[in-house]
Amino acid sequence: MLPRHHRLTHPADYRAVLRGGDGRRRHRAGTDLLVVHLASGDHLPTRPPRVGFVVSKAVGSSVVRHRVVRRLRHLVRPRLERLPDGCDLVVRAQPAAAAASSVSLGAALDRALDRALTGVSR
């Protein structure tokens, strides 16, 4: 479980990361297993990074979706150190994530995060 201060909890927070409109720099990067949406800005540098997860019904049944979220949450926790303060991250699982191993999910997350962080820092 992620600590509460590292979680996106309100639908408006998800909308701000996915759709914009709040003046922050944002970048999206994806793989065949997941897509990451990263919003970063200088207006909240003292707040720790926050993370949210989106897993649609296309991924599978409720049991499968919750398993995917638990695996992604476990993979994101050690990567929080890479995120700058004040940024928000939304990880959206693709249908292929249901059958992927944790190793391949971790590798996909690393690739997507690297690209998103590079895009935001430009």
Description of the molecule:
The protein has helices at residues 11-19, 62-76, 102-121; strands at 25-30, 34-40, 50-54, 88-93. With 122 residues, it is α+β, with helices and mostly antiparallel strands. The chain has one domain (4-121): 2-Layer Sandwich (Ribosomal Protein S5, domain 2), CATH 3.30.230.10. Strands 1-2-4-3 form a four-stranded mixed β-sheet, with helices on both faces. Helix 2 (62-76) packs across helix 3 (102-121). The longest helix is centred in the C-terminal third of the chain and has 20 residues, at 102-121.
Concise account of the structure shown:
This protein has 122 residues and is α+β, with helices and mostly antiparallel strands. Helices cover 36% and strands 20% of the residues.
What's the alpha carbon Rg, rounded to whole Å?
A: 14 Å
The helix-and-strand class reads: alpha+beta
> What is the overall number of helices?
3
CATH architecture: 2-Layer Sandwich
Widest β-sheet, arrangement of strands: 1-2-4-3
CATH topology: Ribosomal Protein S5, domain 2
Q: What would the principal axes of the Cα set say about the shape? A: globular
Largest sheet: 4 strands, mixed
Question: What is the rounded distance between the termini?
Answer: 32 Å
